[in-house]
Design brief:
Layout (H helix, E strand, L loop, with lengths): L2 H27 L30 E5 L12 E4 L1 H8 L5 E3 L2 H9 L1 H23 L2 E6 L6 E6 L1 H10 L9 E2 L4 E3 L1 E10 L2 E11 H13 L1
Parallel strand pairs: 4-9
Antiparallel strand pairs: 1-2, 1-3, 5-7, 6-8, 8-9
């Protein structure tokens, strides 16, 4: 092979990598091979937990929207145990969180609140009069001497009253001790706003009631 032919062969061999390089560059820059960057999703907003004001004893500070016996009147800022506030006062609408908006709202509606308070007192007095003339009957299991196997307390009395349409909560029933004997009792009720009354509770044997019902059915 002549010298010019050898040189031309070498040049041809050295051009092949360049062609391969240009092909790789074209492939890398082609629309099909290019990767499109996806836009980043915005981070969800972080919800700030409401800061509950604390009192000097590290209890929860709340704004009363209704009178609460032994605690305060509507408009008072009181300090209570967190569980008492979250589980009783706030769910029942007796108190709310202390905020500037709530304070302004309460100030604007003080007259209306007083009118509602007087109406509530009138309703409770009417309820007290009706309960005083009422006798509720509670069935319980007992032995031959009339001693109950269990007991009758505020929960049972409240349930019996509610079954007859009287909304009396267990904490409004005042008893020195649970009932453990079949008999007729006068039980004190504290309805709120210093309004107290009594209701008569007749505890009878559930077994005797069942026997009487069976005898009536057979006749």
């Amino acid at each position: 092979m002549s010298k010019p032919e050898k040189e031309s062969t070498k040049k041809a061999k050295t051009k092949k990598p360049a062609a391969a390089s240009s092909e790789a560059t074209a492939a890398a820059t082609s629309p099909e091979s290019a990767t499109t960057a996806l836009p980043e999703k915005p981070a969800p907003p972080v919800k700030k937990r409401q800061q509950i004001p604390r009192g000097p004893n590290r209890g929860m500070q709340l704004l009363l929207v209704d009178d609460v016996p032994h605690l305060g009147r509507a408009g008072d800022v009181v300090e209570v145990r967190p569980g008492y506030g979250r589980n009783y006062l706030i769910p029942r609408g007796l108190a709310t969180f202390v905020t500037s908006d709530n304070l302004r709202r309460l100030e604007r509606h003080k007259q209306r609140i007083e009118e509602l308070r007087q109406a509530r007192i009138a309703d409770l007095k009417n309820l007290a009069a009706r309960l005083r003339d009422l006798t509720i009957t509670i069935e319980a299991t007992a032995n031959e001497e009339g001693k109950l196997y269990g007991s009758v307390g505020p929960e049972e009395i409240s349930r019996a009253l509610k079954s007859q349409g009287y909304q009396v909560e267990p904490e409004q029933v005042r008893m020195e001790a649970p009932i453990k004997q079949l008999a007729l009792y006068a039980v004190k009720l504290h309805l709120g706003y210093d309004i107290e009354t009594e209701v008569k509770v007749l505890v009878i044997s559930a077994e005797h009631v069942s026997l009487a019902s069976a005898a009536t059915a057979s006749n």
